[in-house]
């Protein structure tokens, strides 16, 4: 929407949202939980501009789409015609399907109301368990570690941030989390939650170990919101399927962000959504440009230990070549993932002052010459 107005759109624009809150930056919710940002700053960073062409409908989601007659119906039963419909309906946190998951004080972390509930738990909680050792789970663990609270992270896979890091980088990260006083468990599955008076009191692992807790936060990824698309005859797989114009199988209906799927990929981070929105604004107003996919970038937001993951993490060792640099004393590890001599991904831990251009280098599939590889192996710099 901001990009449409930036490009001087003259058509009426209507925005429908399901939350009562005015628009806020979901990207910075962790900073609110950690006390780095205020609620007002979240609103300010996503403030809608004053514009005669813009109408905003809060707490009023769209409940059905008539793609033949080109109108939508909101939750109040009102019809709204469209010439272009953009679905940016986001995603929902995954939920563990184990006994006891409906006990009180078991949370997911997705919106501003979740953040406020968890801030209230910071003072009263003594033992907090985070289910999920991904980027959001680790940041949440650090944010919740206030007032001498015991925090335990349980990750079912063999390493932290499994899809972003490799084994070596994950070890460095785990050592850092240990230094923070966060108890990290890997290769563990939750069997059930138990409690009394409808409140959670302990987590039972599949090996029988019991971890006492008074608060549980489940952070095991997200699933795209596709129900509206399914009910409207829009094709989905994991998400709402779009082409290189970000259009669905229905004319004049588009999708961007966490709800959409392009070339079999659903992006669960904010920056690909921004790229899609910018591209779509050009398509809608100028009928120019094509979406060519995005390069995923991950970094921790409130854990004060730099983690960088761009593109491929190098797990596909058959077709990739990895070039690495290590500085054990400073807990620094850097890896370039190359395919046919071109940069396909980067994994790094620790401070790296000259890392700013790496995202563009991966996105552009830049060639890394032999002399650059040798320099990188000696100095950690390109």
Task: Summarize the structure in words.
The structure is a single chain. The chain folds into three domains: 2-92 and 223-286, FAD/NAD(P)-binding domain (3-Layer(bba) Sandwich), CATH 3.50.50.60; 95-220, FAD/NAD(P)-binding domain; 306-379, Enolase-like, domain 1 (2-Layer Sandwich). It is globular, with a radius of gyration of 22 Å. By secondary structure, it is of the alpha/beta class. It is built from ten helices and 24 strands. The strands form eight sheets. It has a five-stranded parallel beta sheet. The protein has a five-stranded antiparallel beta sheet with strand order 20-21-24-23-22, sandwiched between helices. The chain has a three-stranded antiparallel beta sheet with strand order 3-4-5. It starts with a helix and ends with a helix. The longest helix has 17 residues, at 270-286.
Summarize the structure in short:
The chain has 10 helices and 24 strands. The strands form 8 sheets. A 5-stranded parallel sheet has the order 8-15-9-10-11.
According to CATH, what is the class of the largest domain? Alpha Beta
CATH topology of the largest domain: FAD/NAD(P)-binding domain
Question: From the alpha-carbon coordinates, what is the Rg to the nearest angstrom?
Answer: 22 Å
For the largest sheet, list the strands in their spatial order: 8-15-9-10-11
Architecture (CATH level 2) name of the largest domain? 3-Layer(bba) Sandwich
Q: Major sheet: size, sense and barrel closure?
A: 5 strands, parallel
Count of helical segments?
10
Tell me roughly what share of residues is in helical segments.
10-25%
Strand content: 25-35%
Dominant shape: globular
What is the total tally of β strands?
A: 24
Q: CATH homologous superfamily of the largest domain - what is it? A: FAD/NAD(P)-binding domain
Compute the average pLDDT. Answer: 94
Distance between the termini: 38 Å
């Amino acid at each position: 929407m901001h990009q449409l107005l930036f490009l001087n759109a003259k058509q009426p624009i209507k925005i429908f949202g399901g939350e009562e809150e005015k628009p806020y930056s979901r990207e910075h919710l962790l900073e609110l939980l950690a006390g780095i940002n205020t609620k007002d700053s979240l609103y300010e960073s996503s403030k809608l501009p004053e514009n005669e062409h813009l109408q905003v409908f809060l707490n009023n989601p769209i409940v059905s789409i008539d793609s033949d007659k080109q109108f939508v119906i909101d939750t109040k039963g009102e019809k709204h015609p469209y010439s272009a419909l953009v679905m940016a309906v986001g995603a929902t946190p995954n939920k563990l399907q184990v006994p006891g998951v409906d006990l009180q004080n078991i949370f997911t972390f997705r919106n501003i109301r979740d953040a406020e509930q968890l801030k209230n738990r910071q003072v009263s909680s003594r033992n907090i368990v985070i289910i999920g050792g991904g980027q959001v789970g680790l940041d949440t663990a650090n944010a919740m570690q206030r007032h001498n609270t015991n925090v335990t992270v349980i990750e079912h896979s063999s390493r932290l941030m499994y899809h972003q890091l490799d084994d070596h980088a994950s070890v460095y990260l785990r050592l850092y989390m240990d230094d923070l006083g966060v108890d990290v468990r890997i290769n563990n599955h939750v069997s059930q939650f138990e409690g009394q008076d409808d409140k959670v009191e302990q987590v039972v692992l599949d090996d029988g170990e019991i971890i006492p807790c008074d608060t549980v936060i489940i952070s095991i990824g997200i699933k795209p919101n596709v129900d509206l698309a399914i009910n409207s005859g829009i094709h989905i797989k994991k998400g709402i399927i779009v082409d290189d114009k970000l259009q669905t199988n229905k004319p004049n209906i588009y999708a961007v962000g966490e709800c959409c799927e392009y070339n079999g990929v659903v992006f669960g981070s904010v920056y690909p959504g921004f790229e899609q929105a910018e591209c779509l604004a050009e398509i809608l107003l100028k009928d120019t440009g094509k979406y060519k996919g995005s390069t995923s970038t991950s970094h921790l937001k409130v854990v004060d230990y730099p983690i960088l993951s761009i593109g491929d993490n190098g797990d596909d060792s058959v077709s990739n070549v990895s070039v690495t640099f290590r500085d054990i004393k400073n807990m620094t590890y850097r890896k370039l993932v190359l395919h046919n001599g071109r940069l396909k991904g980067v994994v790094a831990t620790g401070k790296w002052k000259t890392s700013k251009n790496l995202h563009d280098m991966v996105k552009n599939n830049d060639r890394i010459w032999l002399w650059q590889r040798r320099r990188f192996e000696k100095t950690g710099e390109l």
